Amino acid sequence: MIKTPSLPQFFTPRLLQVLGLLMLLVLAIVFLHLPAVHVVDNKILDLQFKFSREYFPQQIKIDPVVVGIDEAFLDEVDEPLSLNHIHLAKFLKLMNQAGAKVIGMDLSLPEKRFDTLVSTRKDAQDFHKTLLTGMLETIQTTPVVVAKVWDLKHAHFRNIQLDYAAVLGMQGDQFQAVASAEFCRDSDQRIRRFPGADCQPDRMARGLATEIAAAAGVRQDWSGLINYRLGARYNYVPLQEVLKLAQQGKVAELQQRFGGKVVLLGATMDATDLVDLPVSLAAWLPVNDPNPGVLAHAQLLRSILNQRLLQQASMVSLFVLSGLFALFWLGRSIRIKMMVFVMATLGLLLASTIAMQYDFWLPPTAVLLTGLLAFGSSSAWQAWQHYVDKQRLSKAFSGRVSPAVMQEIVEGRIDQTSQSRRLPVCVLFSDIRGFTTLCEHAQAEDVVSLLNRYFAVMSKIVHDHGGTIDKFIGDGLMAFFGAPQKLDNPAQNAFNASRDMLAALSILNEELQAEGKASLQIGIGLHAGDAVIGQVGSAERHEYTAIGDTVNTAARIEGLCKDVGYPVVCSATVLASLAEADALIALGDKNLKGRSAIAVYGWQPLLA
């Protein structure tokens, strides 16, 4: 019995399927928590944000107004940014007069009073008292929320001056007037997530945007992703423009632009507080440049005020989807599974994109990895099984059919249902002369051993020249050239094989003589023409063979070898295809049993 690689008996195909499926489900859980998977998901999310903004722009009802402190403002004023108390006070009063709904300030108020500093201007004012007065007047009718800034190590909050903190605290407990401006950043340092308690140094889930929204009357427990699909790119209002409108007495224009709006003041300078966002929000900057941090707060405010934070699919739902894709481990047809897998992949990506239009984010990477692993491992396992089966089949049939036929069987091109075909071939018959007499004086075991030794040499030569051994008939051999392996000149291959068979026989005879055994003589007959090639027999027992007049004629020609005295005899059809035609001797027309006479030609090797 032929042994092939196999698993222990208790590993049944059904058990292997179940174990494989369980392993894929475990890997799906790993994928769902793998940092590299989250990185890929984030890249896909960014692409979907850009795609949605480009082709499905989202209009919103509530949009905060951004007022920017830029380089032009700093050029116009005399004081450094840390001493702009007077201008901040003016801004607060103007927003209050314009009827702003809430004023958010993405900047930290001073930690000290600066009482010792005196302005040299004619209208010199006390920096501290001016800002304090502005704040007191503003909070009477307009809520004010300012940023909480942490130290570099994020160990503690940098307290603003006590007077400012006290004034801001007078606004009640409906919102936190001093709130963290800290954002959660992903591994690529981009801001995508709602800045919840997990990324706040004090573990408080009340950030700048949430408290501005609360001051505007929108309060709830927020979570999810910042919705970068909402609204157009920002164009900020320069702070100096606001101050100039006031100087020009254009109160109505201020009310039109800021009345009833959530106003957010922050730095819009080219090199201050820049952050990396999934999409470009600054209309005044190139698309790929970092954006001012105030725009991240503004986009988060958009998401909160319009109650449209992007909600991410739960781990349970993603695991269920991964489980469905793990089913690609099952099934036998690789081609069908490939088609279904491609369709399922495209469907998942399309579903993820469509879900985003409903403010829902379906990260696909872990699901697709599970499906890809399931499909890939299943295909690899089936390929291994196919390889093992081919090896088993090759070993089972090795020595029973020619290598060319074996290859066709393994590749599935030959079976009992295959149709026979008429093909041009050259048929070779060979026979040992005087073999019957030799058998009379030898033991049967010795005869069989000699035949096996002889056929081993001759079979290799036939196969080396692209021939197919049809059968062994006692001491005779039948082979054909041109099927199933197609040859350019079957007759030439058959003649070359005949020539090498005689050369090999000479070597074998030298060995036999050295052993004290009688030498062998053979005759070879060749004829070329069409023959029907295919499987002959029943479903239980069949063989790959050649049938037709070409075969019968070749057998009759081989029978002439003894009478004409040549070891190789061929027909005119064979001669016409040979490069060595001049080396063959015309033997005239010879009668063949069962058919009319034909011209034959003889060849024998030159004597050394």
Automatic annotation (TrEMBL):
The chain crosses the membrane at residues 309-331, 338-358. SUPFAM superfamilies: Nucleotide cyclase. Residues 426-558 form the Guanylate cyclase domain. It comes from the Bacteria. Signal peptide: none annotated. Keywords: Membrane, Transmembrane, Transmembrane helix. It holds the Pfam family Guanylate_cyc. Gene3D superfamilies: Nucleotide cyclase. PROSITE patterns: GUANYLATE_CYCLASE_2. This is Adenylate/guanylate cyclase domain-containing protein. It comes from Undibacterium umbellatum.
